[in-house]
Specification:
This is DUF4974 domain-containing protein. Keywords: Membrane, Transmembrane, Transmembrane helix. One of its GO terms (molecular function) is sigma factor antagonist activity. It comes from Sphingobacterium puteale. The chain has about 400 residues and is an alpha+beta fold. The protein folds into 3 domains: about 5-110, no CATH class; about 130-325, Sandwich (Jelly Rolls), CATH 2.60.120.1440; about 330-400, Phage tail protein beta-alpha-beta fold (3-Layer(bab) Sandwich). It has 11 helices and 26 strands. The strands form 4 sheets. It has a 19-stranded mixed beta sheet that branches. The protein has a 3-stranded mixed beta sheet with strand order 23-26-25, with helices on one face. A two-stranded antiparallel ribbon has the order 12-13. A hairpin with a 2-residue loop joins strand 4 and strand 5.
């Protein structure tokens, strides 16, 4: 585990809760993560020991006292030869991460500064939030962030649209209306926003930042079709029509500008941002058929595979947990190019980015919660020593 990983963990509140065993969900989350990545057991163990020894994030002692205790812990471990020398040791990496960025001082600063002041400081670079705009069949637009949970958003075409207690948009037929199959709605997230919607057939769609989903108020009986841009994670409900030997499943189609996906009931993620080099479809369970609209070539995906489409369509094996980390509230980078990383940052934190072309191919590893402010990501990147970053208003500028 390198400095970027350590810096991410030191800033991740869920990881601190895991170390201090103060939150059941966070404990389960990180235990599952360690089961999946056992090669990091030693590094995590060392970091956990340091955090507990320091009373990390307690906010009860001065910054200097915490640093002094950290130095004592490192010296003690070094004297006892209880760590392995493999390049930079875990302990010295932890020290570098803490000293270079001052994670403890950042936390103490947050504890001491009034909340209204911090709100002003974080106005630029604050993490994204649940918000979207709904466009109804008559063209009227509704800001869903302004609608209270549990309230009815609209009634159209015999369909009631509600924002449920969890903040999701839900469609429910209250009367028959044939015209509803021809009427469409569109949900749109801007940069810095995400949103979940339960479609008229019960299927679920989770929109990442800067995405759109267009769908009918009521699906046709023989097929269900939606159109999208950006990135969306789908959980498709299995529906059937007919009886006995005539019984058959109703297919679900997802269309983008470049491809069409046929689904019979499954979980998958589609990344179709126009500024990405590929349109990527990642399958978690079930099966989907992806067809290139330009070349009319198709591939059938199995769980753990993804399709990549630019000029041609191909299949790769993939770590699906990395591809859908955003749905779990995390950024996960594994050898990710800086240019790709910056595009994700731009969408989620609503900032524009500038990066010299010669730096775009630099690769980074790390994991951090999307609930963290942009400053955390900046610190993580800078601690590697590969780049320096300046934030000028809403413009993030990378320099070397």
């Amino acid at each position: 585990m390198d400095e970027l990983n350590l810096q991410a963990l030191l800033r991740d509140e869920s990881f601190i809760n895991y170390c201090k065993r103060t939150d059941k969900e966070d404990i389960e989350k990180w235990e599952k993560w360690l089961q999946k990545y056992p090669e990091h057991q030693q590094s995590i163990g060392e970091l956990k020991t340091t955090i507990l020894a320091l009373g990390y994030y307690s906010g009860e002692e001065s910054v200097q006292a915490n640093y002094s205790r950290l130095q004592q812990q490192i010296k003690k471990r070094s004297d006892q030869h209880r760590f392995k020398k493999i390049g930079k040791t875990v302990w010295f990496k932890i020290a570098a991460a803490l000293f270079a960025v001052g994670a403890i001082s950042l936390f103490l600063f947050r504890q001491q500064v009034p909340e209204e002041t911090m709100a002003t400081v974080q106005q630029v670079g604050s993490p994204g939030k649940d918000a979207a705009v709904l466009t109804l069949k008559d063209g009227s637009v509704i800001s869903l962030a302004d609608i209270r949970k549990g309230s009815v958003v609209a009634l159209q075409g015999g369909v009631e649209i509600q924002k449920n207690k969890d903040g999701e948009l839900v469609y429910r037929a209250v009367e028959q209306d044939v015209a509803a199959t021809a009427a469409v709605n569109k949900i749109t997230t801007n940069r810095g926003n995400q949103y979940q919607v339960i479609l008229p057939d019960g299927s679920k769609a989770f929109l990442n930042a800067n995405s759109t989903l267009t769908y009918p108020l009521k699906f046709a009986q023989n097929a269900r079709t939606v159109r999208m841009t950006g990135e969306i994670y789908f959980e498709i409900s299995k529906l059937e029509i007919g009886t006995g030997a005539n019984r058959k499943r109703i297919p679900f189609y997802v269309e983008t500008a470049e491809q069409k996906i046929e689904v019979l009931g499954t979980h998958f993620n589609v990344n179709a941002y126009p500024d990405e080099p590929y349109t990527t479809t990642t399958l978690l369970e079930g099966s989907v058929r992806v067809t290139s609209l330009k070349r009319n070539e198709s591939v059938l995906l199995k769980p753990g595979q993804r399709s990549l489409l630019n000029e041609r369509l191909r299949i790769d094996d993939t770590d699906s947990s990395q591809d859908i980390a955003w749905t779990q509230g995390d950024f996960v980078f594994k050898g990710e190019e800086l240019s790709s990383l910056l595009r994700k940052i731009s969408r989620w934190y609503n900032v524009d980015v500038e990066c010299p072309q010669r730096l775009e191919k630099l690769r980074f590893d790390g994991m951090v919660s999307r609930s963290q402010p942009l400053s955390t990501i900046i610190d993580m990147l800078e601690i590697t020593g590969k780049v320096k970053i300046k934030l000028n208003g809403r413009r993030l500028i990378v320099i070397d």
